[in-house]
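sorry for the late reply, my laptop died twice this morning and i had to redo everyting from scratch. anyway the thing you sent over, i finally got around to it. pasting the sequence first so we're on the same page, its 254 residues, then the predicted structure underneath. double check i copied it right bc i was rushing
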Amino acid sequence: MTMPQCGSAAQVRASPNFGERAAPGVVDMLLLHYTGMADADDALSWLCDPASQVSCHYFVFEDGRIVQLVAEEDRAWHAGQSVWHGESDINSRSIGIEIANPGHEFGYRAFEEIQIQAVIALCADILQRRPVPPHRVLAHSDVAPDRKEDPGELFPWERLAKAGIGRWVAPAPIQVGMELLPGAMGPPINALQAMLTKLGYGCDRTGVYDLQTKQVVRAFQRHFRQERVDGIADRSTLETLRSLLEAGDEKPVA
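ok and here's the structure:
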């Protein structure tokens, strides 16, 4: 690969860290990450270092520059141990985009305007060529809620959805009222776990609000109810979750 496959990408910097997809030609997921390193150039170098054993397809700098590292036809190594709708080899089905941001460990901050414009243009270009449904445009934290937080609660998912990328419903307002708490047991917890599983998350139906359930709720909040990320299934979280399930993928974002 000598030329970028996306028109908005400025250059190619080939990473050696890739392999063959399990089912060649099947790409139906788009996975967004933040780099989580203090320096963007260091992050790009790490993704191209054979010792790292990690990579992505595209890298978006804070100034909006886009670099392609791995051909879309190949399996980049970006998702790690992950699951969505019961599928565990996310790398084989996805295109991974790394967005430069220090992340929660090194000073998480809002994404730059020009950077988000570049991400939207990149995603739109990919979606023109790849049959990725809205419910499979995901955060790294969605598919690995026990390990990852990226791209985090400052990422503007609503804005992407308005551009036709991914799914979104207006989050229900936070208010005092009923909430499900870690440690709780019984039918309401079973129902919560069933809804999260139906949306796509890997959440065992134990009937107990255990650590896994809390982690999945936090991941859901980071993506869909960003005002407060605490792992507690309050009324706002539950209503937003129900709204997403009812809306499906066809309902446009206003």
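The first helix runs from residue 40 to 47.
thats about all i looked at so far, will dig more tmrw
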